[in-house]
From TrEMBL:
Residues 126-174 form the RNA polymerase sigma factor 70 region 4 type domain. Keywords: Sigma factor, Transcription, Transcription regulation. Belongs to the sigma-70 factor family. ECF subfamily. InterPro entries: RNA_pol_sigma-70-like, RNA_pol_sigma-70_dom, RNA_pol_sigma70_bacteroid, RNA_pol_sigma70_r2, RNA_pol_sigma70_r4_t2, RNA_pol_sigma_r2, RNA_pol_sigma_r3/r4-like, WH-like_DNA-bd_sf. Coiled coil: none annotated. It comes from the Bacteria. Residues 27-93 form the RNA polymerase sigma-70 region domain. Pfam families: Sigma70_r2 (PF04542), Sigma70_r4_2 (PF08281). It comes from Hymenobacter negativus. Gene3D superfamilies: 1.10.1740.10, Winged helix-like DNA-binding domain superfamily/Winged helix DNA-binding domain (1.10.10.10). This is RNA polymerase sigma-70 factor. The keyword Transcription applies.
Length: 195
């Protein structure tokens, strides 16, 4: 059963900054299940997904005093979950190298891997160039510079809803573009973020 959102993000922020545990619990109950499903899609482990989500909420609690008034908790939590998933995947990748014997290790960034990365980067840039200029700018501000939707809206003097719409259209186009070329957009973004 989904819990109804009984207060706005601004009211929730105010309560969190007053150390209101009940507000934190309501946020957790509202978003944790869908964030777990999101994280599980990448990590393929319920335990790892739950750890990632708990880490996101722990960071939210620790940083509650530093959020600006325009925060959108759903957007913040999904972005935090995405970065936490990347961190978990990098850690898993590192452990794979740690568990290998010295004789089985190869150079982590050998010539063929560098070429593959460059080809993927070039393919990504070609796809990005096909986005309308404003959409490309918004996508780059969010995914490459890590700005929140609220910050992008403020910087570009547009509504947060406009930013959300542009991001939705950009992701849809890029996903279809990569699929048409036999690739996964999610995988490409992970690889490009790791290198």
């Amino acid at each position: 059963m989904r819990i109804a959102k009984e207060f706005s993000d601004q009211e929730c922020l105010k309560r969190l900054q007053q150390d209101d545990i009940q507000a934190f619990d309501q946020l957790f109950d509202l978003y944790a299940p869908e964030l777990c499903r999101f994280a599980h899609g990448y990590l393929k482990s319920h335990a790892d997904a739950e750890d990632a989500v708990q880490e996101c909420f722990l960071k939210l609690w620790e940083r509650r005093q530093s959020f600006d008034a325009g925060i959108l908790f759903k957007a913040y939590l999904y972005k935090a979950a995405y970065h936490t998933v990347l961190k978990h995947l990098r850690r898993q990748r590192y452990w794979v190298f740690e568990e290998c014997g010295e004789e089985t290790l190869i150079e982590e960034a050998g010539p063929s891997q560098v070429i593959e990365y460059q080809e993927l980067e070039q393919f990504y840039q070609v796809a990005m160039a096909q986005l309308p200029p404003r959409r490309r700018e918004i996508f780059a501000l969010n995914r490459q510079q890590g700005l929140s939707y609220a910050r992008i809206a403020q910087d570009l003097n547009i509504s947060v809803k406009c930013v959300e719409n542009q991001m939705t259209h950009a992701l849809k186009f890029l996903r279809l573009y990569f699929q048409a070329h036999g690739m996964s957009l999610g995988l490409a973004l992970l690889v490009l973020a790791q290198c």
